[in-house]
Structure of RING-type domain-containing protein:
Amino acid sequence: MEVQSESRYINRDKITSNPIKMDSSMAVPMPSTMYESFSPFLQLPFYQQISTYQPDTTVTVRISDSRKRFRDSTTESNALHLPQKIKLSNQSKILDQDILLLYNSQQSEINCLIEQHTENLRTAIENQRMKQKRMLEFVIHESMVKKLKQKDEEIEDLGKLQLMLQERVKTLIMENQIWREMAMTNETAVNTLRIELEKVMQVSEIHQLHHRNGCEDAEDAESSCRSNCHVEVEEEVAGKWMCKQCGVNRSEVLLLPCRHLCLCTICGSSIFNCPLCCSAVNASVQVNFC
């Protein structure tokens, strides 16, 4: 506000000083311009009467007197306005100094504001960067935790599957061992039965030979009895080796675990209990007689 008021004061002084400059410019006029400027006064009636009674020299004298008065008034006005000009110049110097000081202070304040704004902006950018960094770290941490959790679940599932497979392998190994033992047991039973059958066949052949020799001694007297004896022996042997279920086919199926050879091939596929001891049949083996 002080600067504006001083500037207004300066403008007003400039406006008041303009007529002085104009008067100073008119301080030394040319004769022709001066005559033209006074030409309206020459047309007045009282001036025309004076000009009729006086010669032309008086006119020049009047013009020279007016010129002197104009010059004197100009010098007086210049003398009056000179201190004012000096005062205005001093005031302008003081005003320039004040303006310079004000400009410097404002410039320093502007620089301080710029520095403060720059520092605030830098701090805000740094805070925003740190916030984004923390958010990024949080997102990465959450994703890593989620992935690790998924991997742990997969590892746990694989562990469970491995345990199941191990149990299955153990079960298969045990079943294989059981089947192997059963096969060895069946093989032993078959070999034993084969040996027993061979012994039975040998005994039956011996009995047949002895019976044949005894029958030859009494051919005439006991011919009918011999024939009946052979028939009974053959029927007894044939009935011993016949199937105990149907009684038609020969027994060729060995039942386990009771080890009875008492069923034919047809009946062995449909019977689940032994017809001799009535025990449950777990397995059966077919015996081929040569």
Summary: The chain is about 80% helix and 5% strand.
